[in-house]
Amino acid sequence: MNQRPRRNRKSIGIREMVAETNLKVESLIYPLFIVDGKNMKIPINSMPNCFRWSLDLLIKEIEICGKLGIKNFVLFPAVEDSLKDKTATYSYSSANFYLKAINTIKNKFPEFTLMSDVAMDPYSSDGHDGLVIKGGIDNDQSLPILCKMALSQAEAGIDIIGPSDMMDGRIGAIREVLDDNNFKNTSIMSYTAKYASAFYGPFRDALDSAPKYGDKKTYQMDPRNKKESLIEAELDELEGADILMIKPALSYLDVIQTVKENTNLPVSAYNVSGEYAMVHAAAEKGWLDYDQTFIEVLTSIKRAGADIILTYFAKDFANLKH
Ligand code: PBG
Known about the structure:
Elements: H1 12-18, E1 28-35, E2 41-43, E3 51-54, H2 55-68, E4 72-77, H3 97-108, E5 113-115, E6 131-133, E7 136-138, H4 139-156, E8 160-161, H5 170-180, E9 187-194, H6 201-207, H7 227-239, E10 243-247, H8 253-261, E11 267-271, H9 273-284, H10 290-304, E12 308-311, H11 314-321
Parallel strand pairs: 1-3, 1-4, 1-12, 4-5, 8-9, 9-10, 10-11, 11-12
Antiparallel strand pairs: 2-3, 6-7
Bound molecules: ligand PBG.
């Protein structure tokens, strides 16, 4: 035998030297949920160790994360039902606690990177990401609402806008509004290939944002399609996205790889709530080792080609490395 691949696996030193994939905390973005109020840290049943935080406690949590090396965060608002309406007006209202929270956090931690969510669902009485008209989602009438939302987040000081709504043309529309209002340096990470997935279940519990009727299949992608992700990627590039996201991650590693091979932009992947919940559930039963499993999950996403990973495992990862 001239070749014995096991020689390159024979010691920790050699395995570390030849490792093709390296995870680092700087590539992770930690998703956090915000509620209005004070002194609140509300557990989310289907997402162990994730909470809905009020701003005062969230600031302390971000400080703790910062000390562990986590400096990138994506923020999601959990909005009271009484503030929801058909056109998601609260999403760009100056009274919106989410916008105020962005502003406060950014001022307190100017060196940290903050990303927002742009979609109507947390604010919509219909629970959909776009505007519901006569039982359908009206793409073009949704765009001005999404643009107002994005602009108010830019005004609040967000670093990266994260449109997760999957309306056609929204990246171009948002880019134009940002540029027209002198937010030329506000970035856009597009949810480029966001699939209509069952893995978002726990997240919808966290935000109480499930669709009131119907599903999201007329705007989120069909899990059977891969080439379509390249159409979305091409459009997002042309429309001005800075980073392209694939979501979910684990069941879509092939899509991550394909998009990565076909773009020169950085690629991110969203390791979503259901992927997090599955590992927790199996570990709770004693069926899987939690630490080893989540490290393998993150490694596989990175190996598939994701430069950046949005993941609820970020804090556990940082703690292990600390
Ligand atoms: C909202 C949004 C969703 C997620 C991120 N932004 C849910 C959805 O589209 O229904 C899911 C994140 C996760 O499951 O962790 N548009």
